[in-house]
């Protein structure tokens, strides 16, 4: 199944005007996209975005998929991402692969009919990618990290996204430690949570996770195993604009990418691992 463009922007008022703008001056498209603010809790697309047809994406194959080099961290968000990015071990199926390039072309994954699937899955030729995004959620700093996997053991799914959320008290504080981790269970469609994860599942400040077999599918879980390799980390606001908006608007197996605007905030709410704050006492 090929990636398709998420259709919600077709409902935005003014789309026809923007489509006309693109047809008369296609070089002006990038100017219509202001930088996203990674520290805000985004939940809905901006009304200034052009019609989705302007962001059609074209597939790239695994042989030519290259990760973005890990940028030098400049902000508190970047530095926290580098310090707390998870260590991933893959014990079943394909390794993670880059998902998108600077032109907004997305990885089309693998199908069960691909005769070279076993060879291609052994690891990306040019290295892999970890995507990260951080924001305040309630009274904690949340960072979501996601990986893209080509799959060939599912007849109708060419790719798979897995992700975890790590929780801190404050990314700018001294001697910060990881307070909790929420791991997306793609089999049960819920988050499994550890507050905090046991020391045996940690490598310094990073939690260790494993993508392993669970029945006929694969499942992400806490692990004692070290990662086979460390994908290059790139945070949401570090992505080239076309790459970020491709990830933001492409539908992967009928689901937006975990870090996308349309899914990110709701995912953090579902991943919340702490007890709810007590209600104020009106009798006081």
UniProtKB/TrEMBL annotation:
GO cellular component: extracellular region
Endpoints of the signal sequence: 1-19
One Pfam family it belongs to: NPP1
Compartment annotation: Secreted
Region (Disordered): 24-50
Keywords: Secreted, Signal, Virulence
Polar residues bias: start-end ranges: 34-47
Superkingdom, natural source: Eukaryota
Assigned protein family: Belongs to the Necrosis inducing protein (NPP1) family.
Protein name: Nep1-like protein
